[in-house]
Amino acid sequence: MNNLAMIRNFFQLHPQAVAADLKMTTDELHAFETGQTQPTPLQWQSFAEYYAEKFHVPALPKNEPPIHFRLSVDYLMNIGLTMSDLMVFKWYFNNTRPELGLFAIALFTSDGPTPSIERLTDELPAVLDEFAGYILLNHDGTLNQFIDEKHNNKVSDWRLVLYKREGLLIDITDQLIYFDYLVNYTIM
User: Fold this and answer.
1) SS3 35
2) Cβ(47)–Cβ(4) under 8 Å?
3) What pTM was estimated for this model as a whole?
4) Phi, psi at residue 158, to the nearest 5°?
């Protein structure tokens, strides 16, 4: 399963419009979105470029031109999240709904009856240092656990969150990674 239908639904785009823009039939788009047919590398690139246009952050006071981000082909293929993907999500949530909290990666204890946050990373340079800039995903809809090789191979569960303060966060992992429909937090 890939993330093509999920990202199209997030932007509330009709399949006919996407297919026309990408010069394919709606049947071809449906086959790509459901995994019945695998896009070629050039088609994956076209999807990445097409959806990059949708992740547009309007010009901020200190920035004259608008900012455009691009999701990686790895994200669209549901293989992993790159630094580029994390930057897209961070800018998107921080600039459209900052009141929901900071976009961050949270590591939770994987043992015990109640998971608790053991580490929260919301700065991108720290993501590069702590996670080598890449978080693995599984095709079967489950998350890989994070194995911290720097700290005796400690195993933790990782989640993507919007963090406000201790005890107040929104876990958006499933919505960004695995659900067929991504909740559009910009309209909440």
Assistant:
1) coil
2) yes
3) 0.58
4) -105, 145
